[in-house]
Amino acid sequence: MRSKILLFPIGFALLAACRPEDPVPKPRAYARVDTPASHSYQLFDQEAFPYSFEYPTYARISRDKLVFDKSPDNPYWLNINFPSIGNGVIYLSYKTINGTQTLEKLLDDAHFMSYYHTKRADYQIPYDFKNEYGVNGYLYEWGGEAASKYQFVATDSLHHFIRGALYFDVTPNADSLKPLNDFLKQDIQHLLKTMRWK
User: Fold this and answer.
1) Where are the alpha helices (DSSP H) in the chain?
2) d(Cα 161, Cα 45) in Å, to the nearest integer?
3) In a domain, 25, yes or no
4) Would you say residue 153 lies in a domain?
5) How far apart are CA 127 and CA 146, in angstroms?
6) Domain tally, the chain
7) Sheet holding 196-197, edge to edge
8) pTM score, two decimals?
9) pLDDT exceeding 90 applies to what percent of the chain?
10) Is 134 exposed, middle or buried (0-12, 13-18, 19+ CB in 10 A)?
11) By C-alpha distance, which of 89, 92, 197, 108 is closest to 148?
12) From start to end of the chain, where are the E strands?
């Protein structure tokens, strides 16, 4: 009987000691994303397309199904997907320069869509480029919390016009996306350096 009386306070003390502590929330953080060790490229050169370029071996090209299903007259719009790099996507839209789609109108539309980001961006830096294949245009770099860090325009000023933009399927946060944007900037520059018209 005496042992039962002693066990009761000991048992009560053990149960009281096992009471869970008040939960403490973990600090906010972002998932770590590892980028490939180096940049390597492959050629996109499909016969039906009026352009070709080199793109990363760790990327996948797909047709922009949303656009193609609604408007099959845009068969040359592509997505360059980076599933292992934050699910980033470079959206490429192609237009033929003609009487209704003049170079001036296409440039105005591209500038309007690019400058839409000024609402959230801290700054914008335009870079001109011209590659050895006669492709020229602009690469825009946006700073701050813009939805797209890099956007570009590539053209021959006579027949071909491409607009591109890099997006990630996350809420824009310049700090967390910085390593991914920094890594993919080189791939975008390589794409523009190797783009050519057919």
Assistant:
1) 2-17, 65-70, 103-115, 174-194
2) 17
3) no
4) yes
5) 18
6) 1
7) 41-44, 51-56, 196-197
8) 0.81
9) 58
10) middle
11) 89
12) 41-44, 51-56, 60-63, 78-82, 88-96, 121-130, 136-144, 150-155, 160-168, 196-197
Q: Output DSSP code: residue 116.
A: G
Phi, psi of 102 (to 5 degrees): -75, 160
Q: Which two tokens stand for residue 110?
A: 């591209």
pLDDT band at 33 (very low <50, low <70, confident <90, very high): confident
The domain that holds 92 is classified in CATH as 3.40.1000.10
Q: Contact, 97 vs 161, CB < 8 A?
A: yes
Residue 18, in any domain of the structure: no
pLDDT in tens, 89-134: 999 999 999 999 999 999 999 988 877 766 777 888 899 999 999 9
| Domain region containing 49 | 41-197
Nearby residues of 146 by Cβ (< 8 Å), 6 or more positions away: 117, 120, 121, 172
* Residue 7, in any domain of the structure: no
Q: Cβ–Cβ contacts within 10 Å for residue 160, how many?
A: 21
Exposure pattern of 97-121 as b/e (b: 16+ CB <10 Å)? beeeeebeebbebbeeebeebeeeb
